[in-house]
Each structure stands twice: as C-alpha cells, then as structure tokens.
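haha ok so turns out i had the wrong file open the whole time. this is the CORRECT one, sorry everyone. sequence first:
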Amino acid sequence: MSDAPETVTTTVDRLRAEGFGRWYIERYLEGYFEGYVRGCVRGYFEWYAEALAEWLPIKFGMSSDEVFGIVWTADLEQLRVWCERVLLTATSLDEVFED
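then structure:
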C-alpha cells in the first residue's frame, strides 16, 4: 500500500509551519498529485508494453522489433486491451490487433 496520504499530510504540516499560505499549498499539492498520477500511468504503460514484448513473440512468433514498433505508438487503454486479448481470447495476431 502506498504511503502517499501520509507523505502529503506531513508535507502540508511542514509547509504550514514554514508560513506558506493556502494558495501555495494548494498549488504544491496539485503538482504533487499530478506527478504521482503521471508516474502511475507511466508505470502501467511500461508494464503492459513489456508484457506484450514478452508474450507476443512466445505466443505468435512476432519479432521484438515488430512488437516495439506497434507498442510504442499505442495508448494505455489500447495496450491493456491487447494484453487482455493475448492472455484470454486471441488465437491469432489479427485477433489481438483488431479494432
């Protein structure tokens, strides 16, 4: 489990103690959470991309270069759908990448 809420509370208390006002603290927290969310999304993206880079060559014989050419142009939701198809339903590459 993440310690993010505890970290935020500690940081807000420290900023208040140092005399920073509400406006500054709100902007600080917006930046903190935006960075936190971006990091989470990037982590999911990398996990899905790496999973496809391993699974597609094993299941369908795709080369790593082919996989990376396709994977790095996709968005997060598309990667998630492709992973789901590779694991659960697809019996061919066409079924993995169909719209």
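The two ends are 35 Å apart (CA to CA).
again sry for the mixup
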